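I had to read the description of the data format several times before I understood it. In essence, backbone conformation is discretised, so a fold becomes a row of integers matching the chain in length. I therefore recommend that a typical entry be quoted early in the introduction. For illustration, here is how one protein appears when written out as sequence plus structure tokens.

***
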Amino acid sequence: MEDIESTQNETEELKASVNAVEFIYSIAPKDLDQCLFADSLVTVSDSGRELGDFSVSVTKASYNEELCYLLHANSHGTIDDIPCGTSIIAYISRNLEILEENHHEFVKLEKQTVDRKVRIVKQDDQLVVNRIISEKEGVKTQTHTFPLSSLKGFVSEASNLMILRILARQKTVPENMTFQSFDADTVLSKSVYRALGCKKQMIGEELVDIFGIERTVSSAKDSSGTWHCYFLPDGHLASRVQLGSPAIMKLLHLPFLLDGGLMTLSLLEKDQIPVFEKKPLIWEEDMELYSKFLDRKEELKADYSSYVRQHPELKALLADFLQFLLLRKPQDVFSFAHDFFAPFASQSPPGKSHKDSQNFP
């Protein structure tokens, strides 16, 4: 295992543009609250074959008692018959600062799995980035720290998804819209946005207007990555593609409720409501359900880890308990645990004993 520690206190001139910084400051709470919905797209090949799925959801949350937003995005499927996936779980402040972001990517090759995990955490006046790469050669760990004073106008992958929704609802992208971002190697780079204009797209049986936004992230080592995203008027994602990729993500059906009354459930004819045949469910063999299971597993792990970090006394308390338990080696572990933790139960009714707690009504 290789462990690299580096500190970037003075970054090269990669400042965000004035327009980008002003745009961040102009975002109102109502703009963010209008981003609270879920997108679900299907990944298809050039020939139209389904390859996987892509989803993004934003909800209100709390992080260290601070009101914020929880973003969960995931993409799973096969590209050129190679299983791959990406998952992002992030807590974003009300001014689009990253409080914590966990980014997980994997590619399952024939003889090995390449796994990359990036964890970004805001700590005091700096951003700490931990990167773990697992390959055939072994595991490489990197840690970088960035002073927040050098990250004015920084946009992560998670906050980018929210910015795109806000820009799509406004149907405009300011000129010279350049932010700071991380490239695929977690190197500070430039992220440039520009409008692609409006066009029409067939979604289901409806021809609807969509607005496009291009995002290009420069890279110090590899070529730049460019994404084209098109949105419905209310900010729902209609399509997403990385230039050069053989796959495209598409929205197959209009959401039931859109701004402007494009489509509502009441407008559907009864004979248009699909009827699905009941089939036995084997969730382990269902790619979509299994990927959701893995995403939920990662989401719970991140949530539990966050709670443990917020309560460092928990580790100390459990360590003391295990130490006493192993020293005493009691026959009745349950009674021993009751006696050990009894002093902490300050709100227990007086006179209630351990034996009483075993007598259920």
Notes: Helices lie at 18-26, 29-33, 157-170, 287-310, 313-328, 333-341. The chain has one domain: 2-281. Residues 2-281 form one domain.
